[in-house]
Design the sequence.
């Protein structure tokens, strides 16, 4: 039975990875096409508002989707209560953001915020309607419906943005991209779940859910400050045009967030079921860290190593300032992936308070490093972010070991090995790309990617633990194939 649970989890993971790869392709197309149709300041002003939409989303969710996802049992009434709470919080957050428009426009000295902020505020209400529908699909392992909805909504948003950008709509094209994607996603989730909330009733664990949700909210607030501090500082100190260049570097790193966010919806229910059948968390988390880390770090190493050819190939001319920013941020993206695996460990075991204590140390580290880096310009901010992420990962790993008993030394060894292999691969790609760039950009990217991949796999093959993890991953894939054949 435990093998069946792991096979279900692997099957869900395969669907999520396939969906994430598809979304990454759509994201690359979005970055590539829109960068040729719009100006850096268009991206900058929308990116600035997106930071506050993300903050409003935390307040809207109030940790309730996480509470519902990790709950061993969830009644219809409990799910309905959380649905209505998310809708109420989303409405309040949207109104609050609109009321804050004058303050934001004055603080960032950006008149366009008077228009862009109210236009995007409705995203918070749409997200509130959608949050618990996402949970329902995840708890029932309806991963195909999740993936299809996310991909179709992204494509619809991109199509509307390209049409408007081609017509000269400037930043309105990006606003439409967000709104259309949110509406389509909500409609598809309602259609997929066929779930209808009943009216709110007091009790049924609502107060307990809010209490636990508050802890998760504070954790996510710290994470928001960590991930958004760089964009806020760039927008505040250097303006929307410079933020546009910086944001394109962030968007090129979207693969990791596109993979890790949805993958949590697979990992948490799968690990919960496996633990209920007596399987130890430590070995499973080690294998997940290796597989997820290898995928994310491998892709980021290839992208950073070939950036001199990759960024102009994707964005076209005029975006050269984004190259070093992107390379610096890619390092932080690697450590972010490892930290997210630790986050899953806290969530699976229900250690929300331990997670909060860990984040109260690790997240401010990143913010301090970003603040220090801002003294050295935009690139200094990107480097500061990555240094902060590198310091935060060991903190969360040690705290996870203290809270759950997972093998800290093996988690460290796994992570350091993956980072080392990725760094060696990226440096190899830089060298090979420089040698072949005189021929053509496409050839240089392909050669650099191949060299990076070979170097990473070669280094991993020299380490016995890594070979065992690779064999374990292949066994899981084989099990998945057997289940499909059956």
Sequence:
């Amino acid at each position: 039975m435990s093998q069946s649970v792991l096979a279900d989890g692997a099957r869900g993971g395969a669907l999520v990875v396939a969906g994430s790869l598809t979304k990454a392709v759509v994201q690359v197309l979005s970055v590539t096409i829109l960068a040729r149709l719009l100006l850096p300041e268009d991206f900058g002003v929308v990116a600035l508002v997106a930071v506050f939409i993300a903050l409003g989303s935390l307040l809207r969710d109030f940790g309730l989707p996480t509470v519902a996802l990790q709950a061993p049992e969830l009644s219809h009434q409990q799910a309905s209560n959380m649905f209505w709470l998310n809708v109420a919080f989303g409405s309040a957050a949207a109104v609050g953001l609109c009321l804050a428009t004058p303050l934001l426009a004055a603080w960032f000295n950006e008149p366009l915020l008077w228009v862009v902020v109210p236009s995007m505020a409705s995203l918070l209400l749409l997200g509130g309607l959608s949050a618990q529908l996402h949970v329902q699909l995840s708890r029932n392992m309806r991963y195909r419906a999740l993936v299809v909805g996310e991909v179709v909504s992204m494509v619809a948003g991109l199509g509307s943005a390209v049409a408007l950008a081609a017509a000269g709509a400037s930043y309105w094209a990006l606003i439409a991209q967000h709104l259309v994607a949110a509406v389509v996603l909500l409609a598809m989730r309602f259609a997929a779940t066929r779930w209808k909330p009943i009216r709110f009733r007091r009790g049924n664990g609502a107060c307990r859910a809010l209490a636990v949700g508050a802890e998760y909210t504070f954790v996510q607030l710290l994470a928001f400050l960590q991930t958004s501090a760089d964009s806020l500082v760039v927008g505040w100190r250097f303006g929307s045009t410079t933020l546009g260049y910086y944001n394109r570097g962030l968007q090129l790193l979207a693969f990791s967030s596109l993979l890790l966010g949805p993958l949590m919806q697979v990992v948490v229910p799968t690990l919960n079921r496996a633990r209920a059948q007596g399987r130890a968390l430590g070995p499973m988390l080690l294998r997940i860290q290796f597989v997820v880390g290898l995928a994310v770090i491998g892709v980021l190493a290839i992208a950073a190593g070939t950036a001199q050819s990759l960024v102009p190939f994707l964005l076209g001319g005029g975006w050269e300032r984004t190259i070093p920013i992107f390379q610096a941020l890619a390092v932080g993206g690697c450590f972010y992936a490892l930290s997210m695996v630790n986050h899953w460990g806290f969530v699976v075991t229900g250690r929300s308070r331990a997670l909060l204590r860990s984040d109260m140390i690790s997240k401010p580290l990143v913010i301090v490093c970003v603040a220090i880096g801002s003294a050295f310009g935009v690139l200094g901010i990107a480097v500061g972010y990555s240094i902060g992420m590198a310091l935060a990962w060991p903190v969360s790993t040690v705290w996870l070991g203290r809270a759950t008993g997972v093998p800290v030394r093996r988690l460290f060894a796994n992570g350091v090995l993956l980072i080392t292999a990725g760094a060696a691969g990226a440096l190899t790609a830089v060298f090979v790309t420089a040698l072949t760039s005189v021929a053509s950009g496409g050839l240089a990217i392909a050669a650099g990617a191949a060299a990076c991949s070979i170097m990473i796999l070669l280094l991993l093959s020299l380490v016995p633990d890594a070979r065992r993890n690779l064999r374990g991953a292949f066994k899981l894939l084989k099990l998945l194939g057997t289940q499909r054949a059956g």
